Amino acid sequence: MSQQLAYVIVTPYSLYKSRTGGILSRLISRTGLDLVAMRMFAPSAELVKEYAAEIVSAEDPQDRKIQEELREYILKNLGPDAKTGRHRRVMMMLFRGEDAVRKVRSVVGNLSPDRRGGETIRDTYSDLIIDEDNGQVRYFEPAVLAAPNEREAEIKLKLWAKFSDKDGGIIENTIAHPAGQAPERTLVLIKPDNFNFPTGRPGNVIDFFSRTGLYIVGVKVLHMSLAQALEFYGPVRDVLRTKLKEGVSERAKNVLEKEFNFKISPDAQKALGDILGPIHGDNQFDVIMRFMTGFTAAERPSPEEQKKPGSQKCIALVYEGVNAVRKIRDVLGPTDPSKAPPGSIRREFGSNITVNAAHASDSVENAQREFKIVQPGENNLKQVVEAAYGKL
Hints:
Blueprint: E1 3-10, H1 12-16, H2 20-31, E2 34-41, H3 45-53, H4 64-77, E3 90-98, H5 100-108, H6 121-125, E4 127-130, E5 137-141, E6 144-145, H7 150-167, E7 184-190, H8 201-209, E8 215-222, H9 226-232, H10 234-243, H11 245-260, H12 266-293, H13 303-306, E9 314-321, H14 324-332, H15 345-349, E10 358-360, H16 364-374, H17 380-389
Antiparallel strand pairs: 1-3, 1-6, 2-3, 4-5, 7-9, 7-10, 8-9
């Protein structure tokens, strides 16, 4: 069976209630599909109108009345707020693989007032409440939106991709912050160790960050190039070359004393550190490069090769809110997972100083530097859609 693209749209309400992580966890772990793109949207009235017009379909197994209710929901809840003019946040996730549309739809589920369990995403997160007296819908929240078949997935993906430059990216004018409090924006990278196999870990990490009360305003699936990684982690290299001198000199001293059966003087030990520290630091830097990109500079020596996407997957997220940098780093925990407090991301999911689940900017200034390197507003979603269906 050929590779298909399938989408899931996380509704404004699900984003507001911080259900994104739980939704993503189920989709990755239960479909086994490849997460190939993510993008935030602040849908315009034009996009919403065109999307709503495609919702009711004879090929959708969902009850016709529910489809019509869904169309009205989209018209009312996805576009700009009629009273304030403020745009609403929507997140699109794109999955690729064999039989992708059916697999995604089976995990998403259908909408029904008679659900009895939590098997699907909609079983857990959606609501459809019918008035027993007149049979009218009293409350409706679908949680997520997904296409019923491959043909409609293509139609709707082309539509959203068409608007993805204008309506998507790092979105503005979506969050009302407390008066007199200036919000910050900070970068989070969910690192490659969360993607070794189809697991709920990427979503679980997002769930941890949801404790901060911050808002996701940008998201991108990132295959960090070696050029990006060299620039991103460049400040770390000199730190490693200096910081590791003491540790490597102590280890070298112990090995040499055992091997040759004589004592190493403090001056000789310092000299060992001066010689071996930079070498060990460079080696550890290469470990970081391989972990984040799949390659080292020696393996991709030319500038052209270094600009190519790496083989390792991350999710880059932009969080917005008051004291965003501090709040995110408090939940993340220190670099060394063994020193991280219980309940922090790195304590729960990290393995060592390098394989430590996630990265977060340590200042507003560094966040700005990292945004320029990682480019979380880049439109990878449109690239994936056009690669599958041709130029729009």
